[in-house]
Amino acid sequence: MSIHLENARVIGAKFTDGKYERPSAVVPRLKVPASCRVQLLITPSDDSHIESVLWLPESGWNGRLWSTGNGAFAGSIDEPGLTIALSRSYAVSATDTGHRADDLDAAWALEHPQKLIDFGFRAIHETAKDAKAIVAAYYGRPASFSYFSSSSNGGREALMEAQRFPDDYDGIEAGAPALDGARTIAAVAWMEQQLVRTPGAWIPPSKLSVITAAVMAACDELDGLRDGLIDDPRRCAFKPESLLCRNGDADTCLSAQQVASLKALYRGPGADLGDTGHDGFSPGGESGWSDWLLGSAPGRSYLYQMTLQFYRYLIYADSSWSLDRFDYVRDAPEAVRKLDPMYEAREPDLNAFAAHGGKLIVFHGWNDMAIPPGRTIDYYEAVRTTMGSEQTAAFLRLYMVPGLRHVVGGRGPTAFGQIAPPAPNASASDNVSAALIAWVEQGLAPQAIVAGDYGERGANTHSLYDVISFADMIPIRTRPLCPYPLAEHWTGHGSIDEAGNFVCAKPPPG
User: Fold this and answer.
1) Per the residue annotation, which of 368, 430, 453, 466 is the catalytic one?
2) 0.90 cut: is pTM over it?
């Protein structure tokens, strides 16, 4: 095989026999076909060192290229995603986006502006170009269709592809996208700052159960059903003051300072600080806040550490920067100004992607504890305003998922085939990735997609890939996910645990 790659060279290639593989503890053993596994070093700049891989099934290739993305600050190859896709007969590619590090480590960006560009958008695009070229050379024909699917920072990567490189992929799936990443992390920094503003402001995780119970008591039946789900938390008017301690501090109530903190987490920075007001976390998802928002002690949460890394290395190049120096009015615009050219994925004009014939499915959980869901809705509405409702509907769907945490897991029906490429027998009616393929390849526009609740196993998983193990299980509850802005409504007949007893309709006003 002879091939010219503009900015890349092959640094390794090996043939692997068909076998069972288990690439991580959260993925079951999978039977993968014999394959050629190619390693690339991509260097579009003097300071670039992008490592990418492409796995090619030796036989039984389904004619598709499936590409995966990266969470947080990236820094590794998505081997579980590669293995899942290969086991389902896809040619599959992935990249580390130009650096090797833990996904909460951003020190690689210090004094390396070209690496920041690689991370922001260039590595994904360069990998797409090279993967498509190698696929065509290896099989003697190009992939019939190409797909990119990822979430969180990978969801941002997905939208960046649609916005900047509309010809790279035919179908794109973006889950919980960090599309307005700089502004979102600034908002999260402000919220984390509220939790440490005084010693008594932090909310211990032991109080989350009482908060969750109070929120559900106030808002669970807004849709007329007591089902443990808040279908649209924007309609929830829960008052944190109702939990104010009357007779000293206890796990069954909140101090005045903790009430103020809880309000801040729901509200975000707010319009008084020049924000859209859509940066707070939704009521109903508090049970998932422990590690992400609160941590085991003040300043120990996942998001606290992420904000430190972000501002230290991507914005101010100062490894001593701390959150007590953060000022939202000053630092949010500075982050946007610095990163807008290579990191932000806010462009609402997707005419070029639509003209290419591309299809885009975006989903976001209402109970997301990492990326507040409001900005995803803002982006969708911006696309509709820019391109018109009819043209937008021809290539874009948004699904807002009640109960879903960050990409997977949560309360209720939250498994719908997200992110992992679909198996050959997957149905577009209950698998969002299969729905994307049917839209691209058959012109079958997705409508409602049925999500399943698999009980404790589904509710407790935090793994992006554990959803694939539900394929042969029977859900205990199903519910349709309706294309936004439609919402599911019970017909008034039959069990509320069966999707067939719901219809998609306009949500009630207010």
Assistant:
1) 368
2) yes
